[in-house]
Amino acid sequence: MNTKDIRMSSDPDLAGSYAAMLRAARSAEDLAIKTNTSILVSVDGKDVRLTAEDLIKMRNSVKATES
Fold first, then answer.
1. Cβ–Cβ under 8 Å, residues 48 and 41
2. What is the helix (H) or strand (E) element at residue 40, kind and residue range?
3. Are 15 and 9 in contact (CB under 8 A)?
4. Which domain holds residue 60?
5. Would the pLDDT of 39 be above 80?
Protein backbone atom coordinates (compact mmCIF):
# COMPACT_ATOMS: atom_id res chain seq x y z
CA MET A 1 0.00 0.00 0.00
CA ASN A 2 1.22 3.50 -0.86
CA THR A 3 1.45 5.61 2.29
CA LYS A 4 2.72 8.77 0.58
CA ASP A 5 0.66 11.85 1.40
CA ILE A 6 -1.50 12.64 -1.65
CA ARG A 7 -0.95 16.38 -1.06
CA MET A 8 2.73 15.87 -1.93
CA SER A 9 1.98 14.46 -5.39
CA SER A 10 3.74 16.03 -8.36
CA ASP A 11 0.40 15.89 -10.22
CA PRO A 12 -1.43 19.11 -9.31
CA ASP A 13 -4.87 17.53 -9.91
CA LEU A 14 -4.08 14.68 -7.56
CA ALA A 15 -2.60 17.02 -4.95
CA GLY A 16 -5.68 19.26 -5.16
CA SER A 17 -8.06 16.33 -4.76
CA TYR A 18 -7.37 16.26 -1.02
CA ALA A 19 -8.88 19.73 -0.58
CA ALA A 20 -11.81 18.72 -2.78
CA MET A 21 -12.48 15.69 -0.56
CA LEU A 22 -12.43 17.91 2.53
CA ARG A 23 -14.93 20.28 0.91
CA ALA A 24 -17.19 17.34 -0.03
CA ALA A 25 -17.06 15.99 3.52
CA ARG A 26 -17.93 19.42 4.94
CA SER A 27 -20.83 19.68 2.50
CA ALA A 28 -22.14 16.25 3.58
CA GLU A 29 -21.90 17.33 7.22
CA ASP A 30 -23.74 20.58 6.46
CA LEU A 31 -26.55 18.67 4.76
CA ALA A 32 -26.82 16.15 7.61
CA ILE A 33 -27.10 18.99 10.13
CA LYS A 34 -29.62 20.87 8.00
CA THR A 35 -31.83 17.79 7.52
CA ASN A 36 -31.22 16.35 11.01
CA THR A 37 -29.92 13.07 9.61
CA SER A 38 -26.83 10.93 10.18
CA ILE A 39 -23.77 10.27 8.08
CA LEU A 40 -21.59 7.18 8.05
CA VAL A 41 -17.83 7.64 8.27
CA SER A 42 -14.86 5.34 8.68
CA VAL A 43 -12.73 5.79 11.81
CA ASP A 44 -9.70 3.53 12.15
CA GLY A 45 -11.25 1.15 9.63
CA LYS A 46 -14.57 0.89 11.48
CA ASP A 47 -17.88 2.31 10.29
CA VAL A 48 -19.24 4.96 12.66
CA ARG A 49 -22.64 6.64 12.42
CA LEU A 50 -22.54 10.35 13.31
CA THR A 51 -25.83 12.05 14.04
CA ALA A 52 -26.49 15.71 13.34
CA GLU A 53 -26.14 16.30 17.08
CA ASP A 54 -22.72 14.59 17.07
CA LEU A 55 -21.59 16.76 14.15
CA ILE A 56 -22.70 19.94 15.88
CA LYS A 57 -20.85 18.95 19.06
CA MET A 58 -17.71 18.19 17.05
CA ARG A 59 -17.86 21.57 15.32
CA ASN A 60 -18.38 23.40 18.60
CA SER A 61 -15.41 21.64 20.19
CA VAL A 62 -13.20 22.54 17.21
CA LYS A 63 -14.30 26.17 17.44
CA ALA A 64 -13.53 26.19 21.16
CA THR A 65 -9.99 24.91 20.58
CA GLU A 66 -9.39 27.46 17.81
CA SER A 67 -10.22 30.39 20.13
1. yes
2. strand 39-43
3. yes
4. 6-66
5. yes
